[in-house]
Amino acid sequence: MIDTGLARISRYSYRSKIQRLPVERISQASAKQRSGRCGRLGPGVCIRLYSEDDFESRLQFTDPEIQRTNLASVILQMKSLGLGNLEDFPFMEAPDPRMVRAGVKLLEELNAIDSRKGLTGIGRDLARIPLDPRLGRMLIASREERCIAEIAIIASALSLQDPRERPAEKAQVADERHRVYQDKESDFVGIVNLWKALEEKKKELSNSKFRIHCRENFISFVRWREWRDIHRQLMQLVERELGARANEVDAGYEAVHKALLAGLLSNVGFRNDQSEYLGARNLKFFIHPGSGLFNARSKWIMAAEQVETGRVYGRNVAKIQPEWIEEVGVHLVKLQHFEPHWQKRQGRAAIHESSVFFGLTLQKRRKIPYERIDLPAAREMFIRCALVEQNFNCKAAFFKHNRELLESLGDQQHKGRRGDLVADEEILFRFFDERLPDSVANGADFDRWRRKMEKTDPELLKLKKELVFGSSENLVDEEQYPDHMVSGSAKLQLDYRFEPGHPEDGVTAVIPVHQLNQLSADVFEWLVPGLLKEKVITLIRVLPKSVRRNFVPAAEYADRFLASAERKGSLTVELANFLCAIRSSEVSVRSWSDIAFSGYLRMHFRVVDGTGVTVGSGRQLERLQIQLGDHSSAVFHQIAKQETLKSGCTRWDFGEIPRSQVLSGMKGETVAFPALVDEGVTVGLQLFDSEELANATQEAGLVKLVMLRMHREIKFLKTITRGTLPITRCYERREAHPFMESDMAAGYGALNLDLIQRIIRTVFFEGKPEIRTESAFDERISGEKHRLVETAESLSQLAWNILDLLNQVEERLRGCPFNPVIVADIREQLSLMVYKGFIARTPSSAMRSFPRYLKAILHRLEKAVSHESRDLQATWQLAPVWSSYWNWAKGYPRVFFPELDDYRWTIEEYRVSLFAQSLKTPYPVSRKRLEKIWAQRG
Q1: How far apart are CA 845 and CA 189, in angstroms?
Q2: What percent of the chain has pLDDT over 90?
Q3: Pair 366, 337: CB distance under 8 Å
Q4: What is the pTM for the complete model shown?
């Protein structure tokens, strides 16, 4: 016997809460025990690799186990048996008080004891289970999660040494045999897989053959038998003590791992680095190399145990979601609330919530209703934001009355540039505060209460004029601050705003876009009578000092000027002439050329279209006329939108097609965009007022021209693109695009014809320079036609694959009663992606991702059966991004093709990341990235 004097001794660390296996010097008793082993069959020799002095300096006995292990089980049993506190028990060798406190903390983590250190219901059940408290807690949780069968297998496996053997001389072969049972997301699922595989083999093989099978697959037969015995005993225990039976249907991933998490809450980890995880209480650990997740780089994991050897390793690891930790460990999660704010769309105050678990941040900025945290504060914010500031979507009569009253009085305040004409907000707040009950803090509750109260008192919430008015004596003169201004033949509306620093502070002239080019900047220099004197005084005061001293006081000269001014032409020119005339001074208009007036002393312009939507704004009329001149002409002259230039052509008879051309009308000039159009059996040339629409119809016209030019090749393509009857019917059954313009949707729906269009677009036009001349057209055809057949075969196969997967999705939707919200979301997704004609309209580069998108839907439906709540949560997470984009696309003022928009496909990739992460995305995508891109788009 050779004795090194060292051994790995199991010690529980009360600081890190992990079971350590440090290499330590053994005690004298252990050394004597080792020497005794060598003489069992005959005289032997024990060689100690350390000195006798070293031996004499060692402890006489190894520390008792009660001083080296977690005491949670002992504390639990003592409380169950009524033996009092462990600290007061007369142990011969009492444990360290810090070890006792660590055991108590573990029981608190398992929710076995309450804040008064008394047993909870879970604690009483746990005391009846002769297992490690963590394993017992898993069994109790499995009763609620309905996964007793799986947890019993896992708990029994964790109670003994791993039945999988890994001899050093055959380590690689053993790893390959064991890899069959591994799961990429959970080592616990791997344990269940191993159990089921062995049970199946046990039924098929005799006892001796089964032993051979275990040996060949590096499974310890003895440990497997022990595993089976413990499992049987556990099932009896569960039925007897917990009154539960094993589930007959396999439980889902979430249910199983929530039950496991109940016993392993302090063993969770968040990936902090490439391979390092940050665990509870700032513990850093790594996934054990033998785990199936060693290279997975999962964001959140839990481990069955954390053991320190050379470094801290987590063994038996599984992926988890932070939401599960919040649900299972609700008694340990600490919530922080900050940044209360108003949400107009929801009609309620909200607050950000962060959840922290053992130092790990689970949620950073989750929005929750403010009334759940502070009802009085939420009620005050509702009154101020919704009722006082009227930042609320409400169609009630009182709300309209109050808004009109405040707007009319607000106009007086803005015109007079005074803040004392409208009542203070505190007066309005008290008005509503006295009427609303304490329980009303959001729009929904408010509407229910309002409808009930207005049945008896319709005037309850209507503001009174005498309450809102600060004083009626100082109302502004309408002649000094008119509502309209005349410039030539144009009568323009004037808006007033009193908000220093705001871009529209002062007077704003609202200009219909078709009148923009008719206006002269001179008339607007005169502002309105109420502000003109202040402007003239400012002009005098900013003159050079040598000139300015001749016109003191400035207000007196301003009055004299305004009394005699003809107000024709430029204000600065007329003022300069006036000052020169009365004092023989040289006052030049150039003296004011670089003056930056206060914002409200220069007219602000807002150019609007026919619907009142702002198309341009600023304080320099000339610049706006340059920016919007073409648009103004186009609207004013109403050039024929689709005036035909050529029609009925079967070849290129158009000469060179310019990008744009100027058309002369009876009141000016405007720009039009010529483009080819598909006329069915011929091609024509038409004018469009939109470059986007011209580009779209141009490509459709070019496709038709190619088909007319290459009719023989097209005939051959029809044989390649002919799909099977089920696939063809699937395509033809699709509805048209929900908001595609009818003239753009015409002609789509026949599978082989749409495929031929897509093939031609892909071969001749997709990603290539535009064609404007006959020579370029001929060169493109001769240079690319050799790719037709190859492209036709690949795109046809892609289309059939897409339609086959679409059939599977439709059958799945019909075959199982899913939540209506989930079904509606998927059907909307399909209607906007695989509609009738999508093959012709969708670029092949985007269409190649469709199989993955459809597989993601199938994967989603498969998971939704058992994880409906998780699917709904992901659906709600997606909804704002999805609805924002499509609402914008539907309301786009000109023709718009989402299929050509990269952002539209980024949203589809976001769907994959939410509902089918295993299918991967070609680039990182998240809601935060989408919102950032959307903000940059404006």
Answers
A1: 38
A2: 27
A3: no
A4: 0.48
Q: Name the token pair of 280.
A: 């509870």
The reported pLDDT for the residue numbered 411 is 64
List b or e across 455-473, with b for residues whose CB sees 16 or more CB atoms inside 10 angstroms.
eeeeeebebeeeebbbeee
Q: With contact defined as beta carbons under 8 Å apart, do 765 and 702 qualify?
A: yes
Tokens for 565, please give them: 């001014």
- Bridge-based pairing of strands 23-25 and 47-48 is unpaired
3-state secondary structure of 63: coil
Say if residue 701's pLDDT is above 80: yes
pLDDT, tens digit (0-9, with 9 covering 90-100), for 730-786: 888 888 887 765 444 455 667 888 888 888 889 888 888 888 888 988 888 888 888
CA torsion through residues 324, 328, 330, 333, sign = negative
Cβ contact 345:367 at 8 Å: no
Distance of CA 403 to the CA centre of its chain: 35
DSSP-assigned letter for residue 96 = P
How confident is the model at residue 44, as a pLDDT? Answer: 74
Neighbour-count burial of 819, counting CB atoms closer than 10 A to its CB (0-12 exposed, 13-18 middle, 19+ buried) = middle
Smallest CA-to-CA distance from 384 within 351, 345, 433 is with 433
3-state secondary structure 620-663: CHHHHHHHHHHHHHHHHHCCCCCCEEEEEECCCCCCCCCCCEEE
Q: Which of 301, 316, 298 is nearest to 918 (CA)?
A: 298
Q: Are the beta carbons of 905 and 829 closer than 8 angstroms?
A: no
Mean pLDDT of 31-58: 82
Check: CB of residue 679 under 8 Å from CB of residue 647.
Answer: yes
Sign of the four-CA dihedral 111, 113, 116, 119:
positive
Answer whether 933's CB lies under 8 Å from 906's CB.
yes
Q: Copy the structure tokens of residue 470.
A: 């600060």
What one-character-per-residue DSSP string does 157-215 give? HHTS--SB---GGGHHHHHHHHHTT--SSBHHHHHHHHHHHHHHHHHHS-HHHHHHHHH
Residue, of 704 and 98, whose pLDDT is higher: 704
Give the number of other CB atoms < 10 A from CB of residue 116: 5
**495-551: pLDDT as tens digits:** 888 878 788 888 899 988 767 766 778 888 888 888 888 888 888 888 888 777 788
Residues recorded for the chain: 938
Predicted pLDDT at 561: 85
Q: Which of 352, 283, 343 is nearest to 20 (CA)?
A: 283
Assess whether pLDDT exceeds 70 at residue 609: yes
Q: Which residues contact 602 (CB under 8 A, 6 or more apart)?
A: 506, 527, 619
Question: In terms of C-beta density within 10 A (0-12 exposed, 13-18 middle, 19 or more buried), how is residue 838 classed?
Answer: buried
Q: Identify the band that residue 690 occupies on the pLDDT scale cut at 50, 70 and 90.
A: low
CA–CA distance, 938 with 924 (Å, rounded to integer): 22
Residue 389 in tokens:
């500031």
User: Count of alpha carbons within 13 Å of 55, Cβ hemisphere only?
Assistant: 14
Which residues pair with residue 835 across a beta bridge? none
C-alpha atoms less than 13 angstroms from C-alpha of 513 in its C-beta half-sphere:
23
Counting DSSP H helices and E strands in the chain, the numbers are 37, 23
Can you tell me the distance from the alpha carbon of 821 to that of 329, in angstroms, rounded to the nearest whole number?
A: 29
Calculate helix-pair angle for 927-937, 868-890, nearest 10 degrees. 10
| Span 548-576, pLDDT tens digits | 778 888 888 888 888 888 887 778 878 88
Q: What are the DSSP calls for 702-768, one per residue?
A: HHHHHHHHTHHHHHHHHHHS---HHHHHHHHTSPPPTT--HHHHTT---HHHHHHHHHHIIIIITTS
* pLDDT tens per residue across span 439-495: 999 999 999 999 999 899 998 998 887 776 655 555 566 777 888 888 765 678 888
